[in-house]
């Protein structure tokens, strides 16, 4: 029923779905960009519901406890614990915590926004790449394009050479139009 509702929303608003979804994806990282508005999340989630992909996103473990869990869990929130495992040890980095999620889950499609903010950021966070390479999972390039009113997955990257792959990722995202174009930038280190 939810899938039909999402299709209806796309139809009413004039949005289309990129049909380039890979079959049988069970473990991957999905980049969500451009990310300049909270509306990006809703169009992306509607696309993934239509695709029948169970998308998850990482948030602090406190946000998946009651009463917040009533909202965060149904929307795909998965709690991460970055605290040190033993007294005196350093706490986990975000990248290490995400790697742990992949080690703990046989099936995980994790949505990340490497821009890290809805404001303009010319230097993306690259932890997603390190997680994908270390956990041997592909990176799906998810997008929303407000000019063409299309959302979906446009390309798959299998991590091999970071510099080459990041340049390919930036070239891919240069073509899209954010809801607030002045707030979007690809990573200028990889142009």
TrEMBL record:
Residue ranges constituting the Phospholipid/glycerol acyltransferase domain according to the UniProt record: 29-147
Give the record's pathway: Lipid metabolism
Pfam families, alphabetically?
A: Acyltransferase
Q: Which UniProt keywords apply?
A: Acyltransferase, Transferase
Looking up InterPro entries in the UniProt record yields: Plipid/glycerol_acylTrfase (IPR002123)
One of this protein's GO BP terms? Answer: phosphatidic acid biosynthetic process
Domain of life the protein comes from = Bacteria
Q: What is this protein called?
A: Acyltransferase
Gene Ontology molecular function, alphabetical: 1-acylglycerol-3-phosphate O-acyltransferase activity
Q: Which SMART domains match?
A: PlsC
- Recorded source organism is Panacibacter ginsenosidivorans
